[in-house]
Amino acid sequence: MSADGVRAHVLILGGTTEARRLAGALAATGTEAGSGIRAGAGRGTASGAVPDVAPGSGTAPHAPLRVTTSLAGRVSAPVLPPGETRIGGFGGAAGLAAWIAAHRVTHLVDATHPFAERMSFNAAEAAALSGVPLVALRRPGWSPVPGDDWHFADSLSGAAAVVADLGSRVFLTTGRMGLHTFAHLADTWFLVRSVDPPQAPVPPRLEVLLARGPFGLDDERELLARHRIDVLVTKDSGGSATAPKLTAAREAGIPVVVVRRPPVPQGVRETSSVEAVRHWLLHG
Ligand code: NAP
After folding, report:
1. Do residue 239 and residue 99 come from a single domain?
2. Is the dihedral of CA 156, 157, 160, 161 positive or negative?
3. What backbone phi and psi angles, to 5 degrees, belong to 88?
4. What is the domain count for the chain?
């Protein structure tokens, strides 16, 4: 317990690698002697970017922290992060604010996928309603490099509108949830890779590859060649500087339809660094 008797409780809105990494880093923090976070840390700082900081730079008198990761429940057998987990929607921003109050959450981290637009706006609204500090942990987007043949689309519908002009054998890596957007493309063959099987409506000419990433460059090269892929569709999910599928497409001279990211709520502190979030929790 901290000096004011309130145990800090971090709620991570997850479903991403970054969220799992953060939960792991905080679990390690919580077990270090004399470490943890203060319930008040993170409040009262000006909004804007969270500074990137050197790992382990200083500690404060801390209480052990409680970390809960929230998952939407889209995947049947999710990879669970360290710490506590809860699964399922909250019932909008008001439901999230109620959960925050009921569970004495002191800090909120939006570590959802860059395309989980609704949840990010709910997080911003719930943080404002409940007065808990919020930071968004968001991976940087991708940028084309020489040799790339990228075609940008503003949405999955936009991608569906151009994909048939670019090729006839499509590797669709945008996830199984938006597959209905491509369902009318009867003359185009699709390869879809997902953790769980997709549900109808789906494109009529479809092969599904059930697999969970990460995927290596050799795997991606082999996949593109084996299925004679002539166009790749991806969201600008980002992460590391590039992704093996993008490198493999560049090497093979295959065009890529890149779906641009949706908007994010204004005025939310944002970083791409797990360590910066940990520092923010420790030191405010
Ligand atoms: P979304 O459209 O932004 O959210 C739809 C609803 O799902 C939200 O309003 C919320 O329901 C619930 N929800 C979303 N994330 C949640 C979380 N972490 N914990 C509890 N409830 C959550 O989100 P989505 O695009 O369907 O993504 C769902 C999850 O999959 C997210 O956690 C995201 O990080 C992960 N994910 C998404 C993508 C993608 O491309 N969209 C890719 C990889 C992983 P209530 O309003 O009822 O609270």
Report:
1. no
2. negative
3. 120, 160
4. 2
Nearest-atom number in ligand 1 for the CA of 115 is 41
Half-sphere exposure of 165 (CA within 13 A, CB side): 7
Q: Does residue 236 contact residue 261 with C-beta atoms inside 8 Å?
A: yes
pLDDT in the model for residue 54: 33
Q: With 50 as the cut, is the pLDDT of residue 35 above it?
A: no
Instruction: Give 186 Cα–ligand 1 centroid separation in angstroms.
Output: 29
Expressed in angstroms and rounded, the spacing between residue 73 Cα and the centre of ligand 1 is: 8
Residues 47 and 169 reside in one and the same domain: no
Domain limits for position 117: 8-140+264-283
Residue 56 pLDDT > 60: no
Q: Does 36 score more than 90 pLDDT? A: no
Q: How far apart are CA 34 and CA 252, in angstroms?
A: 53
Matching residue, tokens 């317990």: 1
Q: Percent of the chain having pLDDT more than 70?
A: 86
Q: Pick from 223, 225, 189: which is nearest to 209 by CA?
A: 223
* 75 pocket-lining for ligand 1 (C-beta < 6 Å): no
Look up the CATH number of the domain holding residue 101: 3.40.50
Mean pLDDT, residues 146-169 = 98
What pLDDT sits at residue 30? 63
Q: How far is CA 191 from CA 181, 199, 209, 256, 278, in A?
A: 15, 15, 7, 14, 39
- Going by alpha carbons, the residue nearest to atom 32 of ligand 1 is 15
